[in-house]
Structures are given as C-alpha cells and as structure tokens.
Amino acid sequence: MATSKDPYLEAKKQLRSAVDILGYSDEIYEMLSTPERIVQVKIPVKMDDGKLKIFTGWRVQHNSALGPYKGGVRYHPETNLSEVMALAMWMTWKNSLADIPYGGAKGGIQVDPFQLSPRELETLSRKYFAGISKFVGVDLDVPAPDVNTNPQTMAWFVDEYSNRNDAQLFGVVTGKPLELGGLQTRIFSTGLGVATVAKQAAKKIFGSIEGRTVAVQGFGNVGFYTAKFLNEMGAKVIAISDVKGGIYSSKGFDADEIKATISKKGSMFVTDYPNYEKKISNEELLQLNVDILVPAAIENVITEENVSKIKAKLIVEGANGPTAPEAEEYLTKKGVVIVPDTLANSGGVIMSHIEWVNNRMGGWITEDEARNRLIQKMENNLDMIWNFWENKLDHEKYNLRMAAYGIAVDKVVRAMKLRGWI
Ligand SMILES: NC(=O)C1=CN([C@@H]2O[C@H](COP(=O)(O)OP(=O)(O)OC[C@H]3O[C@@H](n4cnc5c(N)ncnc54)[C@H](O)[C@@H]3O)[C@@H](O)[C@H]2O)C=CC1
Ligand SMILES: O=C(O)CCC(=O)C(=O)O
C-alpha cells in the first residue's frame, strides 16, 4: 500500500517538527523516531493447488510508555516494513491524544487477500498470529482490524491465541464479531468519529455542516461510514471513489443506497452504481471545488504535485497519512484547515478501548452508551486541540497537526520520564 513517498520518512519529519516546537533534545527524538520492537514473521502457506507460498508479515511496536501497544493489522500487496513503522508511530500519537491507556503498534502482511481462497486466508491469518503470539497479549499488545482485515480475521486471531494459551483470551484483539465479545459500534466507529469531527470543524469554519459539499475518497469501512453519517448530518456528498475510480453528482449521493445497489450486483466498487452525472478519477476527486475533502483510503494522496489544485477549505483525514508534509505546509499558508488523522480517525481505536474494557469486565456496556461515549470524546478532543491551537500557538505558523502532536508527544515524553526511561 505504500505510495511513492516513504511514509516512515514523513512520520519522522512530523515528529522532528513537534520535538523542535516542544524544545526536546535530540536524544528524545532518537528515542521516539524508532520503534521499541520489530517482529518479522515468515509465513509458509500450502495453497489450494498444492504449491507452497511464502508470505512476510510484521508487527511493529513503537512505544509502550502509556500502556500496552495498540493498533490494527493490514493485509495489502504493497505494504512493507517502512509503512508499518510509520503507522505504528502514528498510533502512539493517536492513542496519547485520545487519552486512552495505550502505546502504539501496527501490523501488516504483504499479500493481496482477494487472490486467496477462504481456507488460504484463514491459514495465513492463524500462522501470522501464531508467529507474533509471544509478543502480543491482553496487557501487552492488542491488535485490531485495518485495511482488508475484519471481524472474521480477528476471530481467527482470538481462536489461535486462546488455543495456544489454554484460556479464552478475547481481550487480545478488538474489532471482534459480536459473538466473541465485539461491539456492534466498532464497525462504524471510525466513520462516525470522522463525521463527528467534520461536523464540529465545519461549525467553526462555515457555521454549520448542513448543505456543505463533500468529496470522500475511499468506500471501505472508513469511507462508507463517513459518507453515511455525513448524509445523516445534512452534508451533501457529491463525490465518492475507490481503488477503481470515482463518481460525481451535483445533487449528492446517499451512501446507503450506493452500498445496497452495488451489493445487489455482487460488487464493492462505486463505479458500478448507475445514478451518477459523470465518472471521475481519484485525482479529479481530490481537486473538486468542495467545502470539505475526506481522504479515507490510502497514504500520500495530497502531495507537492497536486496541492496547488486542492480547493477544499477543510480537509478531514479519514485515512492515515494522506497529506505529505510539504503539501501540508502549502495548505497551512493558504489557510486550509486539516483535521489530522491522529484526531480525525481515532474513533476506531477509542471504540476498541471500550470493547477491551468491556471484555475485561465481563460485558457491561450497551451499544447506546458506547456510541454516546464515542461522540462525546470526539467532540471534546476536537475542541481541546482547536483551543490549544488558537490560544497557545501562533496559528498562522502552526496547524492543527502540530497542536495535536504537541499534546500527544509531550504526554508520551512525560510518561517516559516518570518511568525512568529518559
Ligand atoms: N478501519 C478502521 O477502523 C480504521 C482505518 N483507518 C485508516 O483508514 C484508511 C482506510 O481504511 P479502511 O476503510 O479500514 O480500509 P478498507 O480496506 O475497508 O477500504 C479501503 C478503501 O480504499 C480504496 N482504495 C484502495 N486503494 C486505493 C487507491 N489507490 N486510490 C483510491 N482508493 C483506494 C478501496 O477500494 C476501499 O474502498 C486506511 O488508511 C486505514 O489505515 C484509520 C483508523 C481506523
Ligand atoms: O482499533 C484499533 O486498535 C486500531 C485502529 C487503527 O489501526 C488505526 O487507528 O489506524
């Protein structure tokens, strides 16, 4: 999934700026710019045709000062160690900022899961988790879904881990099916969180989200639910895309209707929805004249090359790392507000935390309570970062990401000091 730029270099660049603003030493930068542990596993799978295929997977544990490592696992043909290292670092800041007691980690397997049969996918998933099982645990490292993984993947992980440990350890992963201690709310929590902060930020910038035009890149878990909740909030989603391209309608789309229509055709691609005005490319979607742009697919889509053509006044990062630092610098100078990934897409891990607590307590929370807690936390977090940015920083010079980094990195450093690490 890595794009032409190296996301780990970009993540380090962002950290460097934050460390400089906070006035921390080079040693602290060194400590935070590299992961605490990298686990690499070779995964041999006997394929259905009898041939042996060897896959490579990773679990990168970036920092555990604030608690057990936490972060998703992605399956993608282009993922690599560098990408997983960047994503693990971003999880540290996201969890710190969300004020949940977790460190940061991420996992990945370099594979195209759509080329595998269900049996091959289950074998791959179980062997990956067996390979990393000594390094994960309810109080050690708690994986979850990310790109191309889902509750079924988590069920295989839980079963493999529980069998190896002679106990039913459901809290070892989150994003599980309901029957195994998952919460219905986890499925839509990232999208609900993205839509909630979009609404809050739109209120500050435009007065309201109602009637505001939006383009959403990505129609997977995050993109679909973001569009769905934005529809419910009264925004007008005029463009949607996925890996195959996008569609545009000046009247606006109903995300549920797109999903239902393409599902009936056995498709997952938005371009198979017939009621659009024109087909557009992903690049055209990013450059549309909309109020709000939500990149919710992959990293590095807003770059030095296309940034001068971006017209949205508000960008809400559903994906991890969609904006390159050079592009962000340009947009900051232009007065475009970017709600950074570490805040905007934290709804997923916030709900994961609720699921994890619920598992440890034997099940107590209702779906309504979980949903309300999430909305409240997202609103409070957006306000906290916005106020810090407006009141404590020169907001001509610094942006919301640096405000978020300032709060998140400072907390991790304080925890490391208290624990006597530095
Ligand atoms: N699922 C979750 O709870 C969370 C996901 N994220 C991030 O959100 C982003 C999307 O994740 P999910 O929705 O879970 O993945 P997903 O696998 O459910 O959906 C990904 C979507 O992106 C599209 N896509 C893939 N490559 C593309 C390309 N080159 N150009 C345009 N579209 C492309 C796919 O067609 C699909 O519609 C990722 O950056 C992920 O790390 C962040 C926080 C939590
Ligand atoms: O819910 C989780 O623990 C993982 C979420 C995640 O991978 C992310 O926020 O990027």
TrEMBL record:
Gene Ontology terms for molecular function: glutamate dehydrogenase (NAD+) activity; nucleotide binding
Biological-process GO terms, alphabetical: L-glutamate catabolic process
Residues that, per the record, bind substrate: K70, K94, S352
Signal peptide range in chain numbering: none
CDD domains to which the protein is assigned, alphabetical: NAD_bind_1_Glu_DH
Residues noted as binding NAD(+) in the record, renumbered to the chain: T190, N221
Active-site residue numbers: K106 (proton donor)
Record SUPFAM superfamilies: Aminoacid dehydrogenase-like, N-terminal domain, NAD(P)-binding Rossmann-fold domains
Site, Important for catalysis: residue positions: D146
Stretches assigned to the Glutamate/phenylalanine/leucine/valine/L-tryptophan dehydrogenase C-terminal domain: 186-420
Assigned keywords, A-Z: NAD, Nucleotide-binding, Oxidoreductase
Keyword Oxidoreductase: yes
Annotated InterPro entries: Aminoacid_DH-like_N_sf (IPR046346), Glu/Leu/Phe/Val/Trp_DH (IPR006095), Glu/Leu/Phe/Val/Trp_DH_C (IPR006096), Glu/Leu/Phe/Val/Trp_DH_dimer (IPR006097), Glu/Leu/Phe/Val_DH_AS (IPR033524), Glu_DH (IPR014362), NAD(P)-bd_dom_sf (IPR036291), NAD_bind_Glu_DH (IPR033922)
Subunit structure: Homohexamer.
Recorded family membership: Belongs to the Glu/Leu/Phe/Val dehydrogenases family.
UniProt-recorded name of the protein: Glutamate dehydrogenase
